[in-house]
Amino acid sequence: MAPSTPATHVKADQDNGQADLGVARRVLSQAGNGLSKMAAELGDEFVRCVTLVSGLEGRLIVSGMGKSGHIANKIAATLASTGTPAFFVHPAEASHGDLGMISDGDAVIALSNSGETPELSDLVSYTRRFAIPLIGMTGKRESTLAEQSDIVLCLPDVGEASPHGSPTTSTTLMITLGDALAVALLERRGFTADDYRLFHPGGKIGKSLFKVTDLMHTDGEIPLTHPDSPMSDTILTMTTKTFGIAGVVDEDGSLIGIVTDGDLRRHMDGQLVDMPTSDVMTTNPRTVGPNMLAAEALRLMNEWKVTCLFAVEDGKPVGILRVHDILRAGVV
Predict the structure, then answer these.
(1) pLDDT grade for 155, boundaries at 50, 70 and 90
(2) Distances (CA, A) of 285 to 154, 158, 239, 245, 258
(3) Does residue 257 register a pLDDT over 90?
């Protein structure tokens, strides 16, 4: 047998690469077709499911075995993070005591493509015994799970992408249907960006939803002075508060100006400390609102080439925000 040449290896790699791309495109196309078919077939059962879950007094328990169990875990996490109290219960653990985690006011979503997963039997029986609503997510309308369920979310029959029937397309459909349920519940409940940030304080999305009020310095930390105060007092305020700026307020407490390091340099002469603050301050200062997103405040700071802004509400300063506060919080 003649030894293979580098050219032979290159051709083999190219042939394998084309075959690999063909497989990948087939898998993705089958999943896309399945999702399109599921979207077209979605109907009253899905609406009933959203209505049931949105009205729960308790929590939504999501369960499944094997690959379906991994999907169930993700669905529970997505629901919980978007305002629907939910958690995953492993069906095998449920048979050994974790059924006690399910109580009146709860509901259960059980995932099984075949609808005949034996490990789910105790969980299904428990819901029937204690009249706990059961939602079955399955690919078989005539299965045991579908027959026992109060609501059936049935997947379209499009087959698995794997030639050996390994869960592929079915799990894609399950996870996407779970996302659809979570988003439908989110929108029905009017779940806001503030609500989302409450559940995601450490994530990138949560940080992007920080508001000025979450990061600004307030009360006694705000460097404030008055227009008739001598600059000696104003400079002392700027020094002790360490922001390098002072807000100037009138008798009503409204912000009418600011004094910055730049203002000091522009008036640097022997008479500066004796001048009234009103002669040095910059009027009509740029400000932000306390409910503005911190990311927007950061954009304005960059645009205006400033490192510090007063947060004003009804004309009065309620806080002061530094660019360092925003960056330290991880807002970009």
Answers:
(1) very high
(2) 60, 63, 20, 12, 6
(3) yes
Rounded mean pLDDT of the chain?
Answer: 89
Distance CA 308, CA 329 (A): 15
Q: Is the CB of residue 69 less than 8 Å from the CB of residue 190?
A: no
Output the six-digit token pair for 34: 């399945």
**Which structure tokens are listed for 9?**
């290896």
Which residue from 148, 154, 177 is spatially nearest to 45, judged by alpha carbons?
A: 154
Say which CATH superfamily domain 14-191 falls into: Glucose-6-phosphate isomerase like protein; domain 1 (3.40.50.10490)
**Stretch(es) of the chain classified as CATH 3.10.580.10:** 212-328
Q: Which residues contact 222 (CB under 8 A, 6 or more apart)?
A: 241, 247, 310, 317, 319, 320
Asked if residues 234 and 257 have their Cβ atoms less than 8 Å apart, the reply is no
Q: Which CATH superfamily is domain 212-328 in?
A: CBS-domain (3.10.580.10)
Pairing of strands 308-313, 316-322: antiparallel
